[in-house]
Amino acid sequence: MRYLIISLIIVFLGFFGLLNFAISGFQLILNPIQFGLKETAVQIKDGINFFQNVKNVHNEYLNVLTENASLKSELISLRFLSDENKLLRDQLKLNEELLGNSGGGKITSFVLAKVLGNPQDITGSSIILNKGTRDGIKKGGNVIIGNNLVGLITEISERRSVASLITSPKVSMTVYDISVENKTEGLVVGQYGTLAEMTRILPSEYIQKGDLIVTSGKDGIFEPGFVVGEVKEVSELASEPLKSANLKTLVDFSKLTKVFIVLN
For the stretch 154-167, what's the b/e string if a residue is b when 16 or more beta carbons lie within 10 angstroms of its beta carbon? Predict the structure, then answer.
């Protein structure tokens, strides 16, 4: 009953406009609060939109990074492919020149192989290649880069092979000095690193610093005409019946990334 009476009184006062002053007072008090609540709501909404935009921008940035990484990967692949094609063209051109100069019977086919290194060989006298029997590689295949002899296939599996470098003490080859008319002959044995030694040089044979030494092919292992190295020093001792010469390879084998394996 009490609430009913109060309600009737409020309706009566409101009908005759007697509550307008009180309503105006309340509105005066509530307007700043309502405005503040509205501003807060707008700011919260703007904040949510801002963070959503930041998330969208971040996602777009990640997408751009992914696309850039993909493009860079494609460019690198194209660069590697271009380098391989150039290397192959140069090798084919050189082979044609060698065939023309030798009258035939040189190299007829070879395979491009990637150098995988050989961390198990602490002497650095061998390298692992990514080609094996499934690629037609056979034990004894000559490994070259350009007209430079790199080594010899000594171990092989289906998908990989191991090449002993010409600087390995396990590798020897018959050679001759292409820089002199008498073509001084000898036998080269590896000395690790980029060095090799040419031995069994007759005292009467002529050889000097700067001469180029190439394979003769007389050992039946290495094809003739491949560059083995350059003479750095000639050793001739009265106590020794034969002379010897220290050679340095023209190629730094530690920096090789690709080589060619002769198939025939």
Answer: bebeeebbbbbbbb
3-state secondary structure of 244: strand
Q: How would DSSP label each residue in 152-192?
A: EEEEE-SS-EEEEETTSTT-EEEEEETTSTT--EEEEEE-S
Where does 25-107 show beta strands of DSSP type E?
none
Name the amino acid, one letter, at 164.
Answer: S
DSSP annotation of 77? H
> Would you state the CATH architecture of domain 108-264?
Beta Barrel (2.40)
Tokens describing residue 103: 């009258």
> 6 pLDDT exceeds 90?
no
pTM: 0.63
Query: Left, alpha or beta for 262 (phi > 0: left; psi -120 to 50: alpha)?
Result: beta
Tell which wins on pLDDT, 52 or 197. Answer: 197
- With beta carbons less than 8 A apart as the criterion, state whether 231 and 246 touch: yes
Residues 12-71 have pLDDT tens digits of 555 555 555 555 555 556 556 665 665 676 677 666 766 676 666 666 766 665 665 555
pLDDT attached to residue 132: 92
Q: Which helix (H) or strand (E) holds 33?
A: helix 20-102
Mean pLDDT computed over 142-171: 92
**Token duo for residue 233:** 């020093």
What mean pLDDT is reported for the chain?
Answer: 77
C-alpha 97/C-alpha 147 separation (Å) is: 10
Q: Is 263 exposed, middle or buried (0-12, 13-18, 19+ CB in 10 A)?
A: middle
Structural domain boundaries of the chain? 20-106, 108-264
Cα atoms in the Cβ-side hemisphere of radius 13 Å centred on 93: 6
